[in-house]
TrEMBL record:
Main location: cytoplasm
Protein name, entry field: Regulatory protein RecX
Localization per Swiss-Prot or TrEMBL: Cytoplasm
Functional summary from the UniProt entry: Modulates RecA activity.
Entry annotated with the keyword Hydrolase: no
Highest taxon in the source lineage: Bacteria
Highest classification ranks of the organism: Bacteria, Pseudomonadati, Bacteroidota, Flavobacteriia, Flavobacteriales
Any Gene Ontology biological process: regulation of DNA repair
RecX second three-helical domain ranges (all copies): 85-124
Protein family (similarity comment): Belongs to the RecX family.
Keywords on record: Cytoplasm
Length: 186
C-alpha cells in the first residue's frame, strides 16, 4: 500500500518545491517603480534607438502601467519633439524590409496594416522602393531559387519559384512581367 502512494507523495513534494522556488523568484523580481520623468526618458530612448510606430509606443507604455493622463502627456511630447513620426517609421520599415529582407510590397503592406498604419500612408511611402530595384530583386530571387531546384522539370521549377515569390510578397503580375523579360533574354 505504501509503494502505491510513494510516487504521489514524491510528486507533491516536487510540486511544493517548485512553488517555493517560484515564490522566491517573485520576491527577487520586485517590480521597479519609476518617476514620470524616468518613464518619459525611457520612452524617448526607445524611440531614438529606432523609428517606432504609435502601436509600438503604446505597447511599451502598457509595460509601465501608466494612467491615461500620463500616457497622453508622454505621447504628445513624443509627437511634438518628433521622436514619434508615423511617416518616417513607415518609410524606414519599407526600406528595411525590401532592401534587407527582400520582401515584396504585398507582404510589407500586410505587416504595416497589422501595426495600425493607414493604407493611404503606406501607398504614399511606397515611393521608397524604386521600380527598377523591385524588378531586379524579383529577377535575382527567381534565378537564385530556381537554380536550387534540382530534379524537377522546367515547368515545375517555374511553378515552385513563382509560388515562392508570391509567398515573399511579390505581386503575380510583376513576377510574370519579369519572367517574360527573362525568357526574352534567352
Amino acid at each position: 500500500m505504501q509503494s502505491f502512494f510513494a510516487p504521489f507523495v514524491l510528486l507533491i513534494k516536487q510540486k511544493s518545491n517548485i512553488i517555493n522556488q517560484n515564490s522566491n523568484l517573485k520576491s527577487q523580481l520586485l517590480i521597479k517603480s519609476y518617476t514620470f520623468q524616468e518613464i518619459k526618458q525611457k520612452l524617448v530612448n526607445y524611440c531614438v534607438y529606432q523609428d517606432r510606430c504609435h502601436a509600438d509606443v503604446e505597447q511599451k507604455m502598457r509595460e509601465f502601467l501608466l494612467i491615461e493622463e500620463a500616457k497622453e502627456e508622454i505621447y504628445l511630447y513624443l509627437l511634438k519633439e518628433n521622436y514619434l513620426n508615423e511617416e518616417r517609421f513607415t518609410r524606414s520599415y519599407i526600406r528595411g524590409k525590401f532592401y534587407i529582407k527582400h520582401w515584396g510590397k504585398t507582404k510589407i503592406k500586410i505587416h504595416l496594416k497589422q501595426k495600425g498604419i493607414t493604407e493611404k500612408l503606406i501607398n504614399k511611402c511606397f515611393d521608397e522602393i524604386h521600380e527598377e530595384d523591385y524588378q531586379k530583386t524579383i529577377k535575382k530571387i527567381y534565378q537564385d531559387y530556381s537554380s536550387r531546384q534540382h530534379g524537377l522539370k522546367e515547368y515545375q521549377k517555374k511553378s515552385k519559384t513563382i509560388k515562392y515569390l508570391i509567398s515573399r510578397g511579390f505581386e503575380y503580375d510583376k513576377i510574370l512581367f519579369v519572367l517574360e523579360d527573362l525568357e526574352s533574354e534567352i
